[in-house]
Amino acid sequence: MTPAGDQSAGARVPVLVQRFSYELNRFTALFAHRHGLHPTDVDALAHLHQAALRGEAMTPSRLAAAIELSAPATSALLRRLEVGGHVQRSVDPADGRRQLLTLTDRAREVASAFFGPLAASLRDSLSGLDAAEVALVERWLAGAADGARELADRLTAREAGSRDG
After folding, report:
1. In tens digits, what is the pLDDT along the chain, a chain of 165 residues?
2. Which residues contact 83 (CB under 8 A, 6 or more apart)?
3. At what angle do helices 39-54 and 105-124 cross, to 10 degrees?
4. Global pTM?
5. How far is it, in rounded angstroms, from Cα 38 to Cα 73?
6. Residue 52 near residue 38, CB atoms below 8 Å
7. Contacts for 123 with CB less than 8 Å, ≥ 6 apart
8. Of 56, 90, 106, 116, which residue is 20 to 30 A from 155 by alpha carbon distance?
9. Measured between alpha carbons, how far is 85 from 104 in angstroms, rounded to an integer?
10. Biggest CA-to-CA distance, the chain
11. Three-state SS annotation for 35-98
12. C-alpha to C-alpha distance for 56 and 52, rounded to whole angstroms
């Protein structure tokens, strides 16, 4: 962590990101508790939502890899989410052997009702910025998320290599 007296450009960014991450985690935990979900369930729903936003198909095996669960644990998670009315499985029309996972309309409505005010608050926090500044924030957030993902991927690969070798 950055020492409190460090005044270099960007020195406070990691601390502020940690604070923001804590608040987002807290908010997500409230959602999980309110809807009787395990944090891993919420993580799976978030992965399904993000895949849908990117226009990517999500399968049980892709979801298992994304949330780092075994196939049996992912099957149990998907059963819970199906019974709860959050996820539906369908046969991939391009490959009948493959299942596709999608969020149900009910899941989208429940998430929108809970997370919509958070999204509005995040947009409101940009109100004092001009369009160029907002574009800069968006570019930084995308780059920061990509950097964090790449680092996590490298660490995961390194850990897998040390277990295998």
Report:
1. 555 667 788 889 999 999 999 999 999 999 999 999 999 999 999 999 999 999 999 999 999 999 999 999 999 999 999 999 999 999 999 888 999 999 999 999 999 999 999 999 999 999 999 999 999 999 999 999 999 989 988 998 888 777 765
2. none
3. 80
4. 0.82
5. 13
6. no
7. none
8. 56
9. 7
10. 60
11. CCCCHHHHHHHHHHHHHHHHCCCCCHHHHHHHHCCCHHHHHHHHHHHHHCCCEEEEEECCEEEE
12. 6
Closest to 64 (Cα-Cα) out of 50, 51, 53, 78: 78
The tokens describing 32, both together, are 């999980």
Question: Residue 155 burial by CB count (10 A; 0-12/13-18/19+): exposed, middle or buried?
Answer: exposed
Alpha-carbon dihedral sign for residues 45, 49, 54, 58: positive
DSSP code of residue 4: T
Quickly tell me which residue has 């960014």 as its tokens.
Answer: 13
Give the residue among 58, 148, 150 at the shortest CA–CA distance from 101: 58
C-alpha 143/C-alpha 87 separation (Å) is: 30
Structure tokens at 163: 């277990």
131: amino acid identity, one letter: A
Q: Residue 146: which H helix or E strand, with range?
A: helix 131-164
